[in-house]
Amino acid sequence: MAAQVRMQGPSRAALAAGQDRLELLLGSAGTDAARFAEDLFGVTDLVASNAALRRALTESSRPAEARAGLVAQLLEGKVSGPALDLVSGLVRTQWSDSSDLTEALENLAVSAELFSAERAGRLDRVEDELFRFSRTVAGDVTLRDAFAVRTPGAERKRQLVAQLLRGKVAPETLRLAVQAATAPRGRRVEQVLEKFLDAAAARRRQLVAEVIAATPLTETQRTRLSSTLRRLYGRDIRVNLDIDPEVLGGLRITVAGELIDSTVLSRLNTAKRTIAG
């Protein structure tokens, strides 16, 4: 299941149809999901970097078969058969905005990568590793600068990700992290990784709770927290835990943009404001 994206009606319908087609192709015997994802990311990068091509592939005045023919001309022999099939189907449909095609291609590429992890029994691991990497980047100003959009050198960024993660994470995690670092399309790496995490949670039809605690939670505490949040939100909740001794005690929980802050630090700050007022 793809992460939710902000698209208007025609583009949203095109993405939904593409997602259905993707799942069908991935379920076919012999389809290499990892190769599929690699091909789709490559097409995403190609389309993202060429505004004229995006317009040619989404212009409604251009016949659908002509758009599909252009895809065949560009990609035949360079990507797998399933990837060519999927992209050809995408460009035959209607799009509200040419940039939506890029967004949809990236979403579908992520879905293929996550399907690969799921089929290998690594989806939970990949989700956790992406979260850890995102927190590592967010918490290290040197890494943030190294991966910043203004910092040139995609190959240098690729090598840095490999240096940090190769041999330590699942292959799907490494590939997604490299994609986030080398092709952010104007976003911060942490933002891209957050989108990938949302896609992983959506694939498992779960909400993600970003939890910050002063000390690690026991397995019993994590289970109790998950159960409480599941009752509160009416859906399964995956807990991503980050440790920050500065919160002193309690938990800071963010679910679907909603903050639940029961930390000692929060209560102290509230008390200070009350006294000051």
UniProtKB/TrEMBL annotation:
One Pfam family recorded for the sequence: OSCP
Main location: membrane
Residues passing through the membrane, by range: none
Membrane topology: Peripheral membrane protein
Annotated compartments: Cell membrane; Membrane
Keywords per UniProt: ATP synthesis, Cell membrane, CF(1), Hydrogen ion transport, Ion transport, Membrane, Transport
Summary of the function given for this chain in its UniProt record: F(1)F(0) ATP synthase produces ATP from ADP in the presence of a proton or sodium gradient. F-type ATPases consist of two structural domains, F(1) containing the extramembraneous catalytic core and F(0) containing the membrane proton channel, linked together by a central stalk and a peripheral stalk. During catalysis, ATP synthesis in the catalytic domain of F(1) is coupled via a rotary mechanism of the central stalk subunits to proton translocation.
Family membership noted in the UniProt record: Belongs to the ATPase delta chain family.
Name this polypeptide is given: ATP synthase subunit delta
Species of the source: Kineosporia corallincola
Native organism taxonomy: Bacteria, Bacillati, Actinomycetota, Actinomycetes, Kineosporiales
Gene: atpH
